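User: Fold this; tokens only.

Assistant: Input:
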Amino acid sequence: MSDYEGLGERIAGARRGLAQAGIDALLVTPGADLRYLTGYHALPLERLTCLVLPAKGGPRLVVPALEEPAAHASPAGASSPARLGIQIVPWQETEDPVALVAKILGGVSGTTATTIALDDHMWAEKVLAFRAAMPNAQQVLAGPVLRHLRMRKGTAEIQALRSAGAAIDRVHARMAQWLQVGRTEREVGRDIADAIIAEGHTQVDFVIVASGPNGASPHAEVSDRVIEAGDTV
């Protein structure tokens, strides 16, 4: 699946969901939802990056000025084949990005209240900052709108899931190669992580290798315990 395939329909679908739910705008900060809607892989940092998606009107991506080149180079950029129509709005270090978002939404203090959906994993400090900047706006979670959208997979998404699953199956088929008596959990875990990347995955969040007594913990972390004969792993 390309970095931009289907993004336009996702933006359109999110807007339809907002309208159906009676929500005026969606605010999405870095995380899975931002990647899903725009293809932009932004890090969650103290400087605000936020997709501003009104139910009516043009979408904007508010980014720190130092991140502007990366935003333009992403599928959200104007030159991207995705052609999402997102306006990149950079803010300088001396500016207040939360106030900028409020201005974009027309939700400056004292104006008519609106309903704004915030992505479910937005940092609390940013949620509270938006509340302070737009005290008349009702905040709701974006989850109900985005979940309905994300659970419906397109052809490219289905193929991507199948490819990811097949890659992990190939890794699991090699477990006997790595699980050897005398090796540590950490050594085995490192081999598994390297194999996952070699098979085409872009990152490895964690690997669990729990041998012997460590197997009693479903969330065990790899350790320097040496795998012994007869161990359950």
